[in-house]
Design a protein that fits this description.
about 0% helix, 2 domains, elongated, mainly beta, Neuraminidase
Length: about 525
């Protein structure tokens, strides 16, 4: 993909999907994609290099490999909606994934490296329809899939990373006036290849995003200016665990409150997460700082409900707060459950009320069941011991919209974790553990979320667990996503219908994840 300055649009050609190499040509301008039908095109070629050549007035396409992995050395130009094969007198040898970009200061396209019959380390320029091999005194090591972009601020090309001798590297080089210079920086992106790297203008820096390490995809963002790499960290809540999170249907965003940090601090801040961005809210009044509070959205009453938690002084709370329209309001009209933290709470859509179970008060685990409806707390008549789950805290509980009941899993006492599964329906608890052919290991302080997009409950993490499980139709099934949050616990998670994804934040990794 490259920007065509003559025709004033971005050009995209080909690529590869899961079954074949594509040969379509698209342009992007004014916020819209347009598919073109040129008379000729380079054919089914993947992993080629493409760059704009504003001096000559066209986009240049070089190399790649076809569907039978035969390397290519053809040069094509694209201008006015048409592809034309060029016949330069000399050219680089056949290769794929070379680094290729326009050097505005020197007035030519520059190509470096790539993978041919071996790793390449040659430098070429392209101008006036002709290739010319250059002979710089020093140059980067042989590699392919390095990122190359031009910095107008600094007047030089910037090369980062790539794969050299089958090793992913993290070195930085600049190129100007025919000279490669290695840059030594103590802070820089980690080793990677196939990065997305964009030119910097007179007012913006070179931007690098993501890449592949050989084992996993990355999604971090860096900029480069003045021989310095800067990691661009999106604004997000400070690292924490035992935070509370719910999707606020009325306001249309994920809501996060409180938690405790690794240094022992206790938070009382309110954040929203929408379209991949965290924004701190500043409501006029808020619950006091706390961690381990129960929080969920009350679909019947149209607001988020927060209950209890542990205060900054270590006391256990039993206050009830409602959140809607960006404001917290304390509910002081209803006598509710006793003080507790680490209780489980969800909205029981089948029965039409919010359901809360268990928790911990000081050193005592609780096993009582409470409902919340029309701003009033009460206890379901038939949800009484011994026909209820054993007293416990750090429980996973969620409403299973596919099957129409609440599911409770695991939790912990001082003596250890549980691995039992219960359902709540029509005011009754039922232990279904004995009916299950497969069950997750005990996983206190994980996250259980109703993934309405995929049609099942998702269980993520928990104490000493990096597993992911689904639950639907009364059956647990272990899932094996290519990437997961790892052995994380003390986390908060909810489902966001605006992005059709489970959103997870906090725990000991302190990151934001979507599923």
């Amino acid at each position: 993909m490259a920007f065509d300055t003559k025709d004033d649009y971005v050009v995209l050609y080909g690529g590869q999907n899961s079954t074949k190499i594509l040969t379509d040509t698209w342009t992007f301008s004014g916020g819209s994609w347009t598919k073109l039908s040129p008379t000729h095109d380079p054919g089914a070629i993947a992993l080629a290099a493409m760059a704009n050549d504003p001096k000559d007035g066209y986009v240049v396409f070089f190399g790649g490999a076809n569907s039978t992995e035969v390397l290519q050395s053809a040069t094509w130009k694209f201008v006015g909606g048409q592809w034309t094969k060029l016949t330069p007198t000399t050219h680089p040898t056949a290769r794929f994934l070379p680094s290729f970009a326009y050097d505005a200061k020197d007035g030519y396209d520059l190509l470096f490296g790539g993978m041919g019959t071996t790793f390449d380390s040659d430098t070429w320029n392209f101008s006036g329809g002709q290739w010319k091999q250059l002979s710089p005194i020093s140059h980067p090591s042989a590699r392919y899939a390095g990122g190359l972009a031009y910095s107008a601020k600094d007047g030089e090309l910037v090369l980062f990373g790539g794969v050299t001798a089958s090793v992913y590297v993290s070195d930085t080089w600049t190129y100007s006036g025919g000279v490669w210079t290695k840059i030594s920086t103590s802070v820089h992106p980690s080793s990677r290849a196939t990065v997305m790297i964009a030119d910097g203008t007179a007012t913006t820096n070179v931007i690098l995003f993501g890449g592949f390490t050989g084992t996993k995809e990355l999604n971090d963002t860096w900029n480069f200016h003045g021989l310095v790499w800067t990691h661009l960290l999106p604004k997000a809540p400070a690292a924490r665990y035992f935070d509370s999170m719910a999707y606020d249907e009325a306001d249309g965003y994920v809501l996060l409150f409180g938690g405790t940090g690794v240094n022992g601090g206790v938070f009382g801040d309110t954040w929203k997460f929408s379209q991949g961005i965290w924004t701190q809210l500043n409501p006029p009044t808020s619950p006091s700082p706390r961690y381990g509070a129960a929080m969920t959205y009350d679909q019947a009453d149209g607001y988020v409900v927060l209950f209890g938690g542990t205060s900054a002084s270590g006391g256990v709370l039993n206050d009830t707060w409602n959140f809607v329209g960006g404001k917290w309001t304390e509910n002081t009209t209803s006598v509710g459950p006793g003080p507790r933290a680490f209780a489980a709470m969800t909205f029981d859509a089948a029965d039409g009320y919010l359901l809360m179970f268990g928790g911990i008060e000081g050193t005592t685990e609780l096993g009582d069941t409470w409902a919340y409806q029309d701003g009033v707390w009460w206890q379901p008549e038939f949800a009484l011991p011994p026909d209820t789950p054993t007293a416990r805290g750090e429980v996973q509980m969620a409403y299973d919209s596919e099957d129409g009941y609440v599911v409770l899993f695991s939790g912990a006492q001082k003596s250890g974790e549980f691995s039992d599964t219960w359902v709540f329906s029509g005011g009754y608890w039922s232990n279904i553990t004995s009916t299950l052919t497969l069950s997750p290991p005990g996983a206190a302080s994980g996250a259980l979320v109703d993934d309405t997009y995929d049609g099942y409950l998702v269980l993520v993490g928990g104490m000493d667990s990096n597993q992911t499980w689904s639950f639907v139709g009364g059956t647990w099934t272990e899932l094996f996503p290519a990437v997961n949050p790892g052995e994380d616990f003390l986390i908060a998670a909810t489902f966001s219908p605006t992005s059709n994804a489970v959103v997870l934040f906090g725990g000991f990794t302190a990151g934001t994840w979507t599923y």
